[in-house]
């Protein structure tokens, strides 16, 4: 399989069908293919060689979709940048991957200036905005206009498609290496379970740098549906696009669903919008509450709901809780609160610390294998070997499987926090806090938050004769990590609870916050 396969098929079979709708304009498959081929030609003319990494820092757009297709067309490797990262985090990922080209839109020009002055391997920046091209940058549209289309390299199979950076337990992001086959088989697996078809009109509401949105993009190109692009998630604009563009499918975090419902109830102009075109809502990142699901069903009365569970390392799908499992009967049985059943082509086991499968109903670590398991972590052979030991992807999630094969996620073995659909690794936050000279010890945990599911809470022990305020810690972190990772609350203590070997007992820190509450993730 190869990334551009779906595009080629529909350029041949349906050249005049609409591929993308963006800001009121449409582009056909034939037009899209021509632009992609010209952008690939421009990249090659600029000296981008086989396997070279090309990054993009942008809000959702038609150009972002073109980037995803043109880079492999040119025989190069993708590196989509997390738009919520700080400049330091982005520079780390660019240097770590030895990325040479960065495409940037209007929103991130100021950030790009900081990146360009410090990134070691970056040699070109391409401006993909609509204003005047900044000095030292090349213009995206001019490159397309001034270069002839080139033949598709048809880079595919087990060759590297892209590096997708995710948070790491060592305090630094890890580049997840995914092949064309990885993402292709993941897309085919969900398509085989009746997700998307040729008449699908898919609303890109999630950020495009997220692998979940890329996976949906690939599946949609295979099926031949239409991409409707929302630059950034804003509830009113999303509802207007559902109504105006007749969007039939979308992917949302439960928090985003709640924002849509709140906006609809608060604004009479939004309340009258016709939402009947929406037929399928896939949600992920956390289990949806019964109350929120009931509200959503009333608002989106024509839509089915399904939940996806996965991670970047699985390209990204592991299991799916299908629409039929969102019934009242499955709500009563508890299956609606599971992560569903393994998708086609994926095996899942629950294992103990010795990687032995445990009996059904017993909590252990969730491990999975299939054609969508990553190639490994970029330049991290030891982490790769540990995570993929025995040929199984060790997710780091604790869970169990019932007698019917449904997977239930209980807790995060790696102390990951999920806040508003974003994965936050506590080690990254702790590293930022510990760099403050007044901090002697710190621990970061997730605590309940009605709006975001969980929020980041820091527990700190100050150095002798030092004093620090909550505001000072938060300001210190904002300079070092992305805003969504910054602690929302800070607690000062004289000591931290430690085990006999000096390990911080986070279970003790969490206990007062989570007593009498169920802690679910997905």
How do the helices and strands line up, and which of them pair or pack?
Layout: H1 5-13, E1 18-22, E2 25-28, H2 29-45, E3 53-57, H3 62-73, E4 77-80, H4 87-97, E5 101-104, H5 109-118, E6 124-127, E7 138-139, H6 140-145, E8 160-166, E9 174-179, H7 180-191, E10 201-204, H8 211-223, E11 226-229, H9 235-244, E12 249-252, H10 254-266, H11 268-271, E13 280-284, H12 290-299, E14 304-310, E15 317-321, H13 328-333, E16 341-342, E17 347-351, E18 364-369, E19 376-377, H14 381-387, E20 393-401, E21 407-412, E22 416-419, E23 422-425, H15 426-434, E24 439-449, E25 453-462, H16 470-478, E26 489-492, H17 506-514
Parallel strand pairs: 1-11, 3-4, 3-5, 5-6, 6-7, 10-11, 10-12, 12-13, 13-14, 25-26
Antiparallel strand pairs: 1-2, 8-9, 9-19, 14-15, 15-16, 17-18, 18-20, 20-21, 22-23, 24-25
Helix pairs in contact: 1-8, 2-3, 4-5, 7-8, 9-10, 10-12
């Amino acid at each position: 399989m190869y990334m551009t396969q779906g595009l080629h098929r529909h350029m041949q079979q349906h050249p005049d069908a609409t591929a993308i709708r963006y800001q009121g304009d449409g582009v056909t498959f034939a037009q899209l293919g021509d632009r992609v081929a010209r952008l690939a030609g421009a990249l090659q003319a600029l000296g981008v060689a086989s396997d070279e990494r090309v990054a993009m820092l942008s809000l959702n757009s038609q150009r972002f979709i073109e980037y995803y297709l043109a880079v492999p067309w040119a025989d190069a490797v993708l590196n989509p940048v997390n738009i919520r990262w700080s400049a330091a985090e982005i520079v780390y990922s660019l240097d770590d991957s030895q990325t040479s080209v960065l495409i940037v839109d209007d929103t991130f020009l100021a950030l790009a200036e900081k990146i360009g002055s410090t990134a070691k391997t970056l040699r070109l920046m391409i401006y993909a905005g609509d204003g005047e091209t900044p000095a030292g940058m090349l213009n995206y549209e001019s490159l397309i206009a001034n270069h002839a289309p080139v033949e598709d390299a048809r880079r595919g199979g087990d060759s590297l498609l892209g590096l997708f950076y995710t948070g790491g337990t060592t305090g630094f992001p890890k580049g997840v290496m995914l092949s064309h086959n990885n993402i292709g088989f993941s897309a085919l697996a969900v398509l085989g379970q009746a997700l998307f078809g040729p008449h699908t009109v898919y609303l890109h509401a999630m950020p495009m740098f997220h692998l979940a949105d890329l996976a949906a993009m690939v599946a949609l190109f295979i099926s031949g549906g239409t991409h409707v692009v929302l630059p950034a998630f804003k509830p009113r604009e999303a509802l207007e696009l559902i109504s105006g563009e007749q969007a039939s499918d979308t992917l949302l975090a439960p928090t985003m669903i709640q924002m849509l419902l709140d906006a609809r109830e608060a604004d009479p102009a939004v309340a009258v919008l016709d939402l009947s075109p929406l037929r399928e809502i896939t949600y992920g990142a956390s289990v949806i509450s019964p109350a929120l699901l009931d509200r959503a069903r009333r608002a989106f009365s024509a839509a089915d709901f399904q939940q996806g569970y996965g991670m970047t390392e699985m390209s990204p799908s592991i299991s799916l809780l299908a629409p039929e499992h969102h019934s009242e009967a499955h709500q009563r049985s508890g299956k609606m609160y599971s992560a569903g059943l393994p998708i086609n082509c994926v095996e899942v086991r629950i294992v103990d610390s010795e990687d032995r499968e445990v009996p059904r109903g017993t909590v252990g670590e969730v491990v999975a294998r299939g054609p969508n398991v990553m190639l490994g972590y970029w330049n991290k052979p030891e982490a790769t070997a540990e995570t993929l030991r025995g040929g199984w992807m060790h997710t780091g999630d604790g869970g169990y499987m019932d007698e019917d094969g449904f997977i239930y996620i209980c807790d995060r073995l790696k102390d990951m926090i999920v806040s508003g659909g974003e994965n936050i690794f506590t080690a990254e936050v702790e590293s930022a806090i510990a760099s403050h000279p007044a901090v002697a010890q710190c621990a970061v945990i997730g605590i309940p938050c009605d709006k975001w599911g969980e929020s980041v809470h820091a527990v700190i022990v100050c150095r002798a004769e030092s004093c620090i305020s909550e505001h000072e810690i938060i300001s210190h972190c904002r300079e070092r990590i992305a805003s969504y990772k910054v602690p929302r609350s800070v607690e000062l203590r004289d000591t931290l609870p430690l085990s006999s070997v000096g390990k911080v007992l986070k279970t003790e820190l969490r206990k007062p916050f989570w007593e009498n509450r169920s802690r679910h993730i997905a």
